[in-house]
Amino acid sequence: MSMDLYNDDNRNILKGLIKDGVKVDLTVTSPPYDNLRTYNKEVSWDFGIFEEIAKLLYDITVDGGVVVWVVNDGTKEGSKTGTSFRQALYFKEIGFNLHDVMIFAKKNPIPQFVNKRYTDSFEYMFILTKGYPKTFNPLTVPCKHAGEMVTDFKKKTVNDDTVERVVKNLRIKDKKIRDNIWYYSLTGKNYGHPAVFPYDLALEHILSWSNPNDLVLDPFMGSGTVGVACYELNRDFIGIELDESYYNIAKNRIKEANVQRRLI
Fold first, then answer.
1. How many CB atoms lie within 10 A of CB 140?
2. Structural domain boundaries, residue 151
3. Which terminus in the chain has less CB density within 10 A, N or C?
4. How many CB atoms lie within 10 A of CB 173?
5. pLDDT one-digit tens code per residue, 201-239
6. Virtual torsion, Cα 50, 186, 74, 30, nearest 10 deg
């Protein structure tokens, strides 16, 4: 299992990796959207920079690969910016499929006292695919009415003039695929970083869209949560972080995860 970490502008690193023929199976990341996250003001963030990175992500993603893009909108002059939607549409414009729009719902959002607006309690998780996704390992939950019988009504066309109604009795299965709204509590250590991913969010997307020994990328590595999850799940990892202090946090967390894994 390889862990390659870079303290640099992700555009520089991605260009080099692409030149070397590297292909990534899955990207799980969250950009510094709408200047809500400037991260020690290391670099400005605007839609032009986003466009560069989006194109590089398309080039480095293997056919059938997935990008999980976690993003939210700022509020400017009393109006939501809508940048998240602009980004999703741009991803489609350059060739990605918008495979799903998922929601990261916060169980314990920070209370907000603003005029005429409800508390922000979710972020978008855009699931972008390069063609049809080659991997989907669906996470399941128990069915509330498992084992019960239900009646299913379907129409069956016999010929141009006749449609029959077919009645079937079906038994509800023990499990079903989870909904696309995922709930997480904002708890745990922040490791000195202002916006740490919920660990389970990273872990569950890696489980869903990749397999052991696949290559996972986080071009906005932050505190290294995606890399730590890759250690647990036996995925190769490339992490890129511009801010040196956050890079060191990520490097130390991933190193510690490696030590803990060896002790098990």
1. 11
2. 141-177
3. C
4. 12
5. 999 999 999 999 999 999 999 999 999 999 999 999 999
6. 0
**d(C-alpha 96, C-alpha 5), whole Å:** 26
Contact between 61 and 99 under an 8 Å Cβ cutoff? The reply is: no
Cα separation values, 70 from 149, 174, 197, 260, Å: 39, 31, 10, 28
118, 150, 177: which is the final residue of a domain?
A: 177
- Name the DSSP class of 147: T
pTM recorded for the entire structure:
0.87
* Residue 51 sits in the same domain as residue 132: yes
pLDDT tens for 113-154 read 777 888 889 999 999 999 999 999 999 999 887 778 887 777
Could you tell me if 34 and 108 lie in one domain?
yes
The count of other CB atoms within 10 Å of the CB of residue 149 is 9
C-beta separation of 56 from 18 below 8 A? yes
Q: Name residue, tokens 């992700």.
A: 10
Give every CB contact of residue 105 below 8 A, 6+ residues apart in sequence. 121, 122, 181, 182, 183, 184
Residues 43 and 160 in one domain: no
pLDDT at 40: 56
In degrees and rounded to multiples of 5, residue 69 shows phi and psi of -115, 105
Residue 173 carries which side chain, given as an amino acid letter?
A: K
* Same domain for 169 and 56: no
52 vs 145, more confident: 52
20, 113: one domain? yes
Using alpha carbons only, how large is the chain's radius of gyration in Å?
A: 21
Q: How many domains would you assign to the chain?
A: 2
- Give me the torsion for CA of 189, 190, 196, 198, rounded to 10°: 10
- From CA 221, how far away is CA 16, in angstroms rounded? 17
Residues 237 and 259 in one domain: yes
